[in-house]
Structures are given as structure tokens and as C-alpha cells.
Amino acid sequence: MSLKSRRPLLKLALGASLCLALTAGAAGVGEIGQPAPHIAFETLDYRDELLNRDPALTEAVLAFFGLETGTYFWEDDLVASQAWDGLGQRRSNQVVQLPDGRVLLASMRTLSTGEERTALLADAQGNLQAVALAHLQCGKKCLPHEQRRLTVFLRAGVGQASAEPLVAWGRRDPDPEADAGAPRPVQVEFRTVDPGSAERAAPPAVPAGMPGKVPLYPYSRRARDDNNQRGQAVFLTPHSVAQVAAYYRKLAQSDRQVRWNDGGEAGGVLWFKRGKGEGIVEVSPQRNDPLTRVRIEYSPVAP
Q: Which of 5-9, 64-68, 191-195 has the lowest mean pLDDT?
């Protein structure tokens, strides 16, 4: 079913006041210097499914953030994972088609009452332009509710004015019974993301004692739950299991000291030998989010 055929039902479900607040602030679309992550609207089931279970939307969110990290719903982790988690409550799905043809999609975390939620802003073709996180900057502890934050991430080349519908969304009380005429105070900040810059960045940081010849996956970051156990390390990447497997499969084809055992959709295991050291690289889907987990066991050296 197309987006247009769903529009009347969606606007009725959202409530007229929220739609008016969002559409009144709609601004022109800024110039985008590179292709934006794309959402295939026709694949999404807005009423009956979790937004973050749709492959097209998930892929767009991962591509938008790349390896961007921060503390929003939880401490110092990939923003892609946190933004995805904020689209996990079916009854809170919101979709608004703006007068200029753009689309705002939003929801909130599974157990949230509205302080932790995510909204996406895409053009009529499904190109993702901006993402907003409403949050309490939860690290070791969260900010009090009266200090709520709204962080708006802009695709490189998109101006702040273009994201005004996201700001209006963040200032509305998510409770449908709340006073529609009283926007909530919120501290708004804007950040520009450029996933391509991360791909050109230095390799991921490694634990002390990991030999330099261990075959890391270059587009990854140390996992938040890495327990720093000597001889082991865990990395996460927004790339798919298939992409990571293809990288290691190709490596095995050109290096006699590397052997790849393919596990299909479950990932696979790479065995490697480097000088006097050897180890394995285990590739698998991350539990409870769309990231790919790369766990490495290696022969540690003196740091």
C-alpha cells in the first residue's frame, strides 16, 4: 500500500493539533551534497508494525549515522543503534506528510512514556534529511525531566530551517491527552553528520596487547559491552552481516594465513595466523539491534 493511500488514516490517528504544529513550521529543503539514505515508503506498514523492524527504514538510519557515537538513550554508543531503538513502540507510530511533500515518521522506545523517542524527516522520494532524538542524556544517570533535550542531526548540506518540523515535534507533549496548545520546554541542539567522513577515518581503537596484524574490520568501533578481557575484543559496525562476511571472505582468498568458514545469514568465523600468534574473528548479528558484532580472540602481546 502506498503512503498516499494511508495518509487520511494516519493524520486522523495523529490528531489535528500535532499535524497543524508540524505543517505550519515546514521549511524548504536544503541542498544535499551527496545522496541521502533512502526509505522505500511503499514497504512500510505504519499502523500494524514496529517501524524499526522494517528493513528499508533500518538501513536508512544505519547509513545516515554511520559510526557517529554519543550519549542519548544510553551511554557512549553508536547513535544509529539508539535512534533505531527509539522507533520501537507500535502504538506510538506517527506519520505526517508535510505540505512540501516531505514526510515525518516518529515513534518512541518500547518502555518509554515519551521522554525517549525518535523522529525521521525525509523528502518525498524517501531521502533521509534529518533525524531527531528526544532524550534525557542518559549516561550513568539521566537528566531530570525538566531538562529534557532534543538533538537534531542534519545530513551534510541540510540547513537548520529545513528541520523545523522536527523541532515542533520535539516540543509537543507525546501524551495525546495533554494540552495541545502548550509546547513543552526543551533544549534544542543541532549536529551535522557525515557518515562518509568516518569511512575515511583511522582504524578503530584497539585494546592494549592486541597485535597490530590482527585483521580488524576497518569500519567499526569498540562495543560498549566489551569487557576488556585479555585476548578478546568486541567491535560493532552498522554494516550488514553480509558486508562484513564479504570483506573477510575476500581477505581469505588473498591470504594463505587466513581461512573463512561461512555461516550464511548467521555470519561466519575467520581463522588467522600472524607470526607466532593466531586467533579467530567471529561475525554475527548483534542481539536486540540491527548492528553487526565482530568478536576477536587473539594471542595478546606485552603492551
A: 5-9
Identity of the amino acid at 296? I
pTM of the model: 0.83
Residue with cell 543503534: 81
Kindly tell me if the per-residue pLDDT of 225 is higher than 80.
Answer: no
Q: How far is CA 294 from the centre of its chain?
A: 18
Instruction: Please give the grid coordinates belonging to residue 66.
Output: 554511520
- Longest alpha-carbon distance in the chain: 69
Where do the H-state alpha helices sit in the chain? 3-14, 16-24, 55-65, 79-85, 164-171, 195-199, 241-254
pLDDT in tens, 120-158: 999 988 889 999 999 999 999 999 989 999 999 999 999
Q: Tell me, what amino acid is at 41?
A: F
The answer to whether the beta carbons of residues 120 and 134 sit under 8 Å apart is no
**What are the strands of the beta sheet with 187-193, ordered from one edge?**
94-97, 103-108, 117-122, 128-135, 149-155, 187-193
**H helix intervals, 153-202:** 164-171, 195-199
Cα separation of 20 and 3, whole Å? 19
Question: Roughly how many angstroms between the first and final C-alpha of the chain, as a whole number?
Answer: 58
Q: What is the CA radius of gyration of the chain?
A: 21
**Count of all residues that appear for the chain in the document:** 303
Q: How far apart are CA 136 and CA 150, in angstroms?
A: 9
* Chain segment 236-259, per-residue pLDDT in tens: 999 999 999 999 999 999 998 999
Domains and CATH numbers, the chain: 3-198 (no CATH), 203-297 (3.30.310)
Return the C-alpha cell found at 257: 594465513
Average pLDDT of the residues of the chain: 82
How far is the C-alpha of 149 from the C-alpha of 299, rounded, in Å? 44
Which residue's entry shows cell 570483506? 247
**Location of C-alpha cell 515513534:** 107
